[in-house]
Amino acid sequence: MIDLNSSSPSLSISPSRQFLFDAIVVGAGIIGLAHAALLARQGKRVLVLEREQRAIGASVRNFGMIWPIGQPLGPMRDMAMRSRDLWKEILDESGTWYEAKGSLHLAYADDELEVLREFVDLAQEEPEGPAIVSPEEASRMSPPIRQEGLRGAMYSPSELCVDPRLTASSLTRHLSERWDVTFRFGMSVTDIRSGIVKVGSEVFEADEVFVCVGPTPGDLFPELLWDRGVKLCKLQMMRARPKSPNYRIGPHLCAGLTLLHYNNFEPCPSLSWVRDRFASELPEYLENHIHLLVSQHGDGALTIGDSHEYGRSFAPFSDDRIDQLILDYLDTFLPCEEFEIVQRWQGFYPKHPTESFLVESPFPGVTVVNVLSGIGMTLSFGLADHVLKSEVRA
After folding, report:
1. Where are the domains of the chain?
2. The domain 103-157+231-351 belongs to what CATH superfamily?
3. Among residues 59, 87, 53, which one has the least CA distance to residue 183?
């Protein structure tokens, strides 16, 4: 463990240090890749160290949604929109597949529609702000949705879709080939100090170090994560294959339960009515922190989820009952007979009850960056942009 109270940490290295890189990024998930990309575009010589043989964590286990609509109005939405714009730049530059899909929040109850109206009123001055659309308009945008009982929807044009199973590897290849970023996989970092990253007996040197490794800062800097009140979140997700090759859902889809999940809706007065009704009608969903998102990727596959369980360790088994709850609620707005489930998996990310991200400098020249909620894909490039302009790096 590194002593964060030590003012002059030391490692056994040559006193005349030659910096081989301008920056070292620890972690090749999307947060690390975003930092590496922006550093390289500034002309920096960048090394990325990753303990796995490829990215296998939250960056490849998510919906592939770049989701500014889920962020509270103000600085967080501004960061998400900046991130979305940077995403588009790097995706276009690398030739990586994406689609500007937007999103539809579907309302099948009057109180849900009222929350959406209240949010649209709050966001009316926002660039690319959302709008209320009629049931008929929503059905034109997404023909597969259930029309019976649909009261209306909120459409937002700002969301992108990427395929998380392809994007990390595509960006890694692009950064290596176009920007000469050096990647070393299978490298488990054991110690970090100012200008120094140690992997077993190997020592790597750079002017700056950025630690972007999801839950594992707790291995290197426990004071910055676990002592902060952070827990892990385990979620269950599924992948589905439509039965028709022409099946398209259009925008990202979600419905009433999602109103309780994202903080952007908290200022809406009618949200309490929705919360009370779901507590009465769907208590098991609230107990398991289930809400529903659906995305569709370039190959037609759907990603569906998810549930949320919080703690420090979990049973290694998925719960079929939770998967069935997810599918039962999904069927209320997107008929499940149109597709079949082909894969199921678990995801993990660090979660803080109030903080969205962590940016700390335990030593001069060492910056720990972590997203403390399930919004890493959305915030990645905007957060990296914020960090690289921030005084915390001093």
Report:
1. 21-59+165-228+354-393, 103-157+231-351
2. D-Amino Acid Oxidase, subunit A, domain 2 (3.30.9.10)
3. 53
Confidence of residue 217 (pLDDT cuts 50, 70, 90): low
**Tokens 């922190």 correspond to what residue?**
289
**Is the separation of the CB atoms in 266 and 250 below 8 Å?**
no
Euclidean distance between the first and the last CA atom of the chain, given in angstroms as a whole number: 23
CATH 3.20.20.450 fits 21-59+165-228+354-393, yes or no: no
Strands 366-371 and 202-211: parallel
The Cα 255–Cα 262 span in angstroms is 12
Paired tokens of 368 = 């720990």
Give the residue from 263, 261, 234 showing the smallest Cα distance to 355. Answer: 263
Statement: the pTM of the whole predicted model exceeds 0.90:
yes
Rounded-to-10 torsion of CA 122, 123, 126, 129: -160
CA separation for the pair 320, 323 (Å, rounded): 5
The 10 Å Cβ neighbour count of residue 229 is: 12
Tens digits of residue pLDDT in 88-106: 999 999 999 999 999 999 9
- Are 309 and 79 within 8 A, CB to CB? no
